[in-house]
Amino acid sequence: MQVQVARIGKPHGIKGEVTVLVLTDAPDSRFAVGAEFVVEPAKIGSLTVKSSRWNKDILLLGFEGTNTRNDAELLRGATMFFESDDDEDDDAWYEHELLGLEVRVGANKVGKVAGLRTQAVQDLLIVEDNEGDEVLVPFVDEIVPEVNIEDGYVLLTPPAGLFTVNKDVSENDETGEAADLSGADGADGSEGTPE
Question: Which of 7, 15, 46, 72 would staple 11 via disulfide (CB 3.0–4.6 Å)?
Fold first, then answer.
């Protein structure tokens, strides 16, 4: 089975390196020098890693045969895949498996999975709620106890205010104003009466 592990971004520097959006939880071993990947679009052919390094929190890769910025520009937007055995890790989920799954809290549909953001500490599910807003949900067992690929849904047990606090953060990021992260609901007349 082919599993998507990265999406290639913009060129970095003049020697053919590219930035990479990492979609795997083991980037250091997955993108080791000599690793070979299947690439879409297929016209690019396969890519073999010749250099791999971190620039702050961005992974930079160099590939055999990609030696200039112009070569690197031709790779922009391509996706990288590797061949995987299905039984590698029963608890591992890949972005392509999660995209479009219905997101439920109990029996209520609250949105759909729009993406997966992998990070060093914990992954985040990107959920598009019923109003079309993006909400970031920590992808941990306590909050996402069930992922059912076959039936097409993800079950959440979010703490109170998770959707409203995270929505406030994204809205405030766009306006540049500081977010109120106190978690206090109810200022707008909605739920959140203290118990």
Answer: 72
| pLDDT reported for residue 189 | 43
Determine what percent of the chain falls in helix, strand and coil, rounding each to the nearest 5. 15, 40, 45
* C-beta neighbour count of 27 within 10 angstroms: 19
Query: What mean pLDDT is predicted for residues 182-189?
Result: 42
Write the DSSP assignment of 13-60 as a string of letters.
Answer: TTTTEEEEEE-SS-HHHHT-TT-EEEEESGGG--EEEEEEEEETTEEE
Span 52-72, average pLDDT: 93
Contact 113, 96 (CB under 8 A): no
Determine the pLDDT at residue 56: 86
